[in-house]
Amino acid sequence: MRSTMTVRAAKTGYIALSSVLCGLGLLLILKPDLSMALTGAFIGAVMIAFGVIKLVGYFSKDLYRLAFQFDLALGILLIALGALLLAKPVRLMSMLCVILGIEIVADSLFKVQTAVDARRFGLETWWLIMALALLTGGAGVAVAVNPSNSALTLTVFIGAALLVEGLMNLCVALCTVKIVKHQRPDIIETDFMGEER
User: Fold this and answer.
1) For position 192, what pLDDT does the model report?
2) Residue from 105, 95, 101 nearest 143 by CA
3) Three-state DSSP class for residue 75
4) Taking 50 as the threshold, does the pLDDT of residue 132 lie above it?
């Protein structure tokens, strides 16, 4: 039997950090005048934490193999971008929108693939994952393109993008990560009898 501890840790971390993203998104929507340097540093820290959780998820070998299938590359990308934001939050604030927008669009594209695979797999909630992925992708493009010159409006855009990103990841974790107590290993070892001569 395979231990479910890693899958449980990845799912719990995914849910917790998705909730943090939702909370941060709501905070930025309701209080868009927060310090941008502080916001950038906090977003950087959350990106690193989410990157680590994505790597844990990727190596956890969950039962359906849907939620974490693309998280190796995305986890490494999040850790790298988060480290850059933490190292130079003030200097990179002008690029935050582009960095965040690209990451959100990339994640949403991977989740579109997850939704397609979930449909093939027979999961009834595939359409919800698809809808949230498309909505998140649109929000990511809006943040990356930066259609407003107003810092407050831009902060609201970032908040909205983080909110839907959090909802999308929360939906994926809840709908596609199944923890089975007595999960069998991927490769079942069998003894082959040699052909009788």
Assistant:
1) 42
2) 101
3) helix
4) yes
CA-CA distance, 38 to 49, in Å (whole number)?
A: 17
Beta strand ranges found along the chain (DSSP E): none
Contact between residue 190 and residue 58 where contact means Cβ atoms under 8 Å apart:
no
Per residue in 48-65, is it b (16+ CB within 10 Å) or e — as a string? bbbbbbbbbbbebebbbe
The arithmetic mean of pLDDT across residues 170-177, rounded, is 89
CA-based end-to-end distance of the chain: 36
CA 163 distance to own-chain centroid:
12
pTM for the complete prediction? 0.82
Considering only residues 79 and 60, tell me which one the structure prediction assigns the higher pLDDT.
79
User: What does the alpha-carbon distance between residue 85 and residue 123 come to, in Å, rounded to a whole number?
Assistant: 37
pLDDT value, residue 183: 52
* Domain boundaries of the chain, sorted by first residue: 5-176
Instruction: Decide: 71 and 54 in contact? Cβ < 8 Å.
Output: yes
Q: At what angle do helices 36-58 and 93-121 cross, to 10 degrees?
A: 30
